């Protein structure tokens, strides 16, 4: 192999390549197996948060994910290489049971017992050595997001391998104690390298307080299993002390308390103190904290860059989300429900004041000139943190540090009724057109058709030069005008999901005719890699043929519930798109003729064909 000995690339170039493959597990695994140098650069990325890669996979069922997570936990528990004594490197430590045997006895009976005991311990040690991984994968496990160890440890105990008993899996210990021991084992190995820790709130004082001096690179804290009325003072003290000693905590994720005791003080008044304890909180993830919307005004905005809220409850009338967002000068990522149709009207107005529509775009070539001549353009975007791979690549923005102006919003995920949601989305696309990279809109599903006929189309006539992900669900997908795709030159992922009630009555025939007319315009997205059409979209063989000629870069296609296409159109699509890796189609196409599936694989052996009802 060419790459086996020497790779003719500097480490900096390899790191850039690996940075683009952070979320692609298969590609990272291929790099790990390619050469020793690629292993050294890719393994820390692949194994820094392996449980999350398994959980986020769409290829495996839940049972398969459990099986793989169990095997991964066993690998981590057995990957801690045996250490040697510092005084004598050749002498193994007490992990070798042979070295712990007492002095040789003198009586014949004791000598026989001695040999049996020594042989048994030697066999257990050999099993333990064989089970030990040849690579210390545990030292790469730096992003220890919350993992539910209960089921994994229960499965691991059932394995017929005696050597696991040497690694904390003692059958006599209770499961809560065993979870605590395993969690402590994972944290204490190299606490100075840990960047993310996710644990139940009751374990934080036990696991983290003893290592507070060593956790000098801890960036993110995830708290779960928070019951109503829990004592958060120990966690508050840990955050304050760590912030004063190291000052690295920037992110916090809070999972809301379980509704156990309604008579106690509401949890949201207590949990917001955890966010306020961080002096420079940049990321607040409260998607599983349903009451976070009630304390929106209490979440600090001085350094806030990412705010993720749950989409179940709407903001109450006494909370003005628009006024709050106007104070978030550095916000880059937002996920929240929408109650006000003028949620981003302030941003449109600010854009007009700054006259950004008449300014030349700031590119790499003219950024130095713009940084000198501009006095109010955008707030400062920090350079990449050492533990994060994906950040804004242009450090020239650091010269534009201004305490006013528009935030450079990169990601938006909005949810609400279409009558207020659509105006808010149009304002957001208008205000953040230069920086928006991902847009997800979910309309609240209703059984009324009135909103469909009265909602203005969702479209824009200005370029969204950085938009790479567009995800529209419900009425937002129906209201979307495909002509807007012409203004999205970098779009690589498009997901359109029709309302669940579509085609439930004869009134939908008019909408169906309109969709048939505008569907060919979806081919304006010529640089797509991933296309998902969820729901009963009219997809004909003619449209599939047009896709093969315009969407030449397509690698994933989902047309499961769509109507109008045949197996002939699918086969022609597969033969034309040789780079297609995943195709999800309706199950009935191959249900009675399995030979059709074999024909698909013959056209493209690498193709993963998914059949769904």
From TrEMBL:
SUPFAM superfamilies registered for this protein in UniProt: RNI-like
Region: Disordered, residue numbers: 83-102
Name of the protein in its database record: F-box domain-containing protein
Organism: Linnemannia gamsii
């Amino acid at each position: 192999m060419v790459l086996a000995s020497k790779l003719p690339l500097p480490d900096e170039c390899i790191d850039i390549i690996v940075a683009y493959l952070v979320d692609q597990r298969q590609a990272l695994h291929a790099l790990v197996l390619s050469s020793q140098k690629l292993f050294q650069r890719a393994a820390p990325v692949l194994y820094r948060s392996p449980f999350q890669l398994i959980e986020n996979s769409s290829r495996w069922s839940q049972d398969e994910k459990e099986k793989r997570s169990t095997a991964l936990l066993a690998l981590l528990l057995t990957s801690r290489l045996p250490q040697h004594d510092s005084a004598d490197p050749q002498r193994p430590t007490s992990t070798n049971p042979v070295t712990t045997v007492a002095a040789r006895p003198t009586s014949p009976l004791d000598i026989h017992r001695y040999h049996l005991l020594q042989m048994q311990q030697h066999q257990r040690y050999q099993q333990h050595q064989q089970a030990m991984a040849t690579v210390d994968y545990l030292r790469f496990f730096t992003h220890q997001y919350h993992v539910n160890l209960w089921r994994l440890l229960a499965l691991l105990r059932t394995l017929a391998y005696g050597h696991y008993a040497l690694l904390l899996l003692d059958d006599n210990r209770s499961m809560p104690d065993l979870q605590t021991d395993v969690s402590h084992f994972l944290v204490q190995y190299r606490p100075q390298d840990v960047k993310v820790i996710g644990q139940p709130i009751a374990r934080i004082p036990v696991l983290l307080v003893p290592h507070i001096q060593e956790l000098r690179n801890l960036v993110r804290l995830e708290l779960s299993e928070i019951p109503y009325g829990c004592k958060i003072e120990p966690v508050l003290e840990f955050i304050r002390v760590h912030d004063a000693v190291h000052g690295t905590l920037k992110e916090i994720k809070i999972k809301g308390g379980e509704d156990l005791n309604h008579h106690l003080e509401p949890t949201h008044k207590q949990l917001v103190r955890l966010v306020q304890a961080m002096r420079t909180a940049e990321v607040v993830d409260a998607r599983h904290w349903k009451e976070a919307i009630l304390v929106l005004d209490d979440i600090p905005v001085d350094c806030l860059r990412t705010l993720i809220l749950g989409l179940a409850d709407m903001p109450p009338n006494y909370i003005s989300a628009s006024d709050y967002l106007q104070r978030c000068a550095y916000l880059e990522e937002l996920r929240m429900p929408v109650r006000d149709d003028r949620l981003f009207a302030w941003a449109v107005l600010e854009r007009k004041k700054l006259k950004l529509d008449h300014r030349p775009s700031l590119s790499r070539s003219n950024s130095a000139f713009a940084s000198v001549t501009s006095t109010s353009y955008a707030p400062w975007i920090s350079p990449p943190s050492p533990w994060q791979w994906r950040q804004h690549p242009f450090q020239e923005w650091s010269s534009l540090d201004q305490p006013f102006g528009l935030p450079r919003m990169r990601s938006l995920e909005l949810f609400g009724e279409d009558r207020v949601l659509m105006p808010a989305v149009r304002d957001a696309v208008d205000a953040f057109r230069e920086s928006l990279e991902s847009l997800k809109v979910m309309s609240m599903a209703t059984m009324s058709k009135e909103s469909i006929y009265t909602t203005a189309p969702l479209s824009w006539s200005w370029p969204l030069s950085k938009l790479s992900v567009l995800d529209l669900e419900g009425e937002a997908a129906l209201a979307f005008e495909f002509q807007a795709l012409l203004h999205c030159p970098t779009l690589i992922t498009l997901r359109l999901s029709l309302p669940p009630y579509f085609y439930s009555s004869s009134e939908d025939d008019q909408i169906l005719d309109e969709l048939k007319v505008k569907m060919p315009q979806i081919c304006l997205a010529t640089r797509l890699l991933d296309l998902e059409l969820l729901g009963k979209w009219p997809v004909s063989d003619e449209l599939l043929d047009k896709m093969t000629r315009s969407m030449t870069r397509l690698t994933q296609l989902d047309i499961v519930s769509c109507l109008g296409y045949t197996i002939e159109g699918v086969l022609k699509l597969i033969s034309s798109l040789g780079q297609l890796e995943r195709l999800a189609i309706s199950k009935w196409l191959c249900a009675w003729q399995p030979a059709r599936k074999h024909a698909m694989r013959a056209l493209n052996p690498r193709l993963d064909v998914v059949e769904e009802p």
